[in-house]
Amino acid sequence: MASQLHFTENTLPLHLLLERLERLVDVVVTHEDLHLAACSYPRRPHHRVREFVRRREFRHGGWRYNMVLDTYKSIFRQQGPVADMAILKIARMGHPVLLQKCAPVADPGAPEIRRLVDDMIETMVDAPGVGLAAPQVYQPLRLFVFRVPGGRETDDPDDIAQPTAVLINPTVELIGEERAMGWEGCLSIPDLRAAVPRATRIRYHGVDCDGNVTEREATGFHARVVQHEYDHLDGILYTMRMTDFRHFGFIDELDRAGAKG
Would you tell me how many other CB atoms lie within 10 Å of the CB of residue 20? Predict the structure, then answer.
């Protein structure tokens, strides 16, 4: 008699387990029921996953689970009336997508760009972070989302809290020669932080998904966030901007040492 696989009603723990394992090894799923269980939970029901897999003719061999996580996660949630925003996987330092110059967005109002922006905002807030660029979610496009939460502003009167915003095909101009060191982290470089020199005042320009133009000057933390995210669009990580590696380390160790940031 052929062996049978049995799963509980709540398959989310299995999905999370395989997602954790993916960070260490490639997990190849060869059994359809196991694959469906791993990719399904209340907001991603079996019948929708099965319909998608069969429509794409993934019927032979196995599914390499890093492909499932990188590709399926942003597609399954689009199926049918249960569609919702998704938490995207974030690329980590070492992945080549973080080192390439990104392409302009041809149509900022396209449905797939709107979905990407919505998912990036949800991912940024969930992380939690204050900025997220498209290449950080494996999309080499010139767009990023950011925010300036209350309490992160500097003493500069022009540096105030900012609601979540998107900049598509942005440009950034550094104003003046003044530079300041400030602590930065990055969702693509987890658990680490460093002091990075940045221009204290910038002017930036970009559009949103509706074609509305944003053009303004920014200072302080606001300017730092925009510069950090804009760098991602040119394949630059904050570690490439550092000038003193004594101010670079694990967040918990820096906190114990009294480093600010």
Answer: 9
Instruction: Answer whether residue 224 is part of any domain.
Output: yes
Residues 222 and 184 occupy one common structural domain: yes
Give the residue numbers spanning the domain of 250.
96-256
Global pTM reads: 0.69
- For residue 30, pLDDT over 50 is answered with no
Confidence of residue 259 (pLDDT cuts 50, 70, 90): confident
Q: Which residues contact 63 (CB under 8 A, 6 or more apart)?
A: 28, 29, 30, 35
Active-site entry in 32, 177, 229, 253? 229
- The amino acid that residue 178 corresponds to is E
Which CATH number fits the domain that encloses residue 168?
3.90.45.10
Q: Give the other-Cβ count within 10 Å of 55's Cβ.
A: 9
DSSP count for the chain of H helices, then E strands? 8, 10
Q: Is 229 among the residues known to form the active site?
A: yes
